[in-house]
Amino acid sequence: MQASQTDGPKHEKYRALIAQAQALPPVATAIVHPCDQVSIEGAVESAELKLIDPVFVGPTDKIADAARRAGLDISGYTVVDVPHSHAAAARAVQLVREGRAEAVMKGSLHTDELMGAVVAHDGGIRTERRISHCFVMDVPGHPVPLIVTDAAVNIAPSLEDKADIIRNAIDLARALKLPGIWVAILSAMETVNSKVPSTIEAAALCKMADRGQIEGALLDGPFALDNAINADAAAIKHIVSPVAGRANVLVVPDLEAGNMLAKSLSFLAGADAAGIVLGARVPIILTSRADSVLARRASCALAGLVAHARREAAAASIKPEGGAAR
């Protein structure tokens, strides 16, 4: 999704996100079929900013041609030669399985082609967790970044799917080191109504959190958008909740609602948008070929933060000989 073309002074949350990722080691990232100018520019610029350490996967001649057209020198980067985009997706996933890549970035191939390799039963990198997408939105005038999920992968998620969508968003919020995680489950209203299924699911998800099935954040819902993010709107409707008016994770009813919300924030409110796919073994930078280089750079920053958080979690889970996990 197209983000703002400049990172002016009003986008301080966006700049902080980039700076936070730049303070960490760059993430080895498999760039899948970067055979057009936008794909290769985004990867090289993110590498120059020390956000990623790219491994270009695709036909060598096409990658070289794209670099020439972009006026870029990629001689210092690793290129893995494969004959076509389908092979590039499969090889990128294999690099993850071999431990040579901690993130995957989509280039000039169709999303379904890349995700097909990611979720393949033989040789894929899926986990038990449902795969989902998160936008991190920097909305001018809003005090905190907003995580919007899922606006790109799950079309009509079930209750179980939504539980995983929330878990993935909580993991992302932790990687961003947000001071608190307040999850609002959105609908068209803030009361449970049997005629509006999303309100029933919101209530069920909150009860799942109460019973420890979803951990790491405060959940509440259903909420209409206004009383989820605006304290005055919540007060007018006499909503008493630790989440009301301060939510920083917005869980939408379905892909259509999420896509419209994210694009409205971007195009009407001038928000910056960074997107990432979670739920696989590594974060997946799943941007559109129409996205700006700026949007790809922000998404690379997210991938770096998530990958670093996973490294920390893996290190913490290692048990020293004769002792408990540290």
Description:
This protein is α/β, with parallel strands linked by helices. It has 2 domains: 1-126 and 291-326, Rossmann fold; 127-279, Isopropylmalate Dehydrogenase, CATH 3.40.718.10. It is built from 11 helices and 11 strands. It has helices at residues 12-22, 37-48, 60-70, 85-97, 111-118, 159-175, 197-210, 225-229, 231-236, 255-269, 293-317, and strands at 27-32, 52-58, 78-81, 103-106, 132-138, 146-149, 182-186, 218-223, 249-251, 272-278, 284-285. The strands form 2 sheets. It has a 6-stranded mixed beta sheet, with helices on both faces. Helix 1 packs across helix 11, helix 2 (37-48) packs across helix 11 (293-317) and helix 4 (85-97) runs parallel beside helix 5. The protein starts with 11 loop residues before the first helix and ends in a 9-residue tail after the last helix.
Strand order of the largest sheet: 8-7-9-6-5-10
Distance between the termini: 41 Å
CATH architecture of the largest domain: 3-Layer(aba) Sandwich
Low-confidence stretches: 2-8, 322-326
Shape: globular
- The Rg value, from CA coordinates, equals 20 Å
How would you classify the helix and strand content by structural class? alpha/beta
Instruction: Name the helix and strand elements from N-terminus to C-terminus, one letter apiece.
Output: HEHEHEHEHEEHEHEHHEHEEH
The CATH class of the largest domain turns out to be Alpha Beta
As a percent range, the share of helical residues equals: 40-55%
Counting DSSP H or I runs of 4 or more residues, the number of helices is 11
Task: Give the total of beta strands.
Answer: 11
Give me the CATH fold name of the largest domain: Rossmann fold
Which whole number gives the mean pLDDT? 91
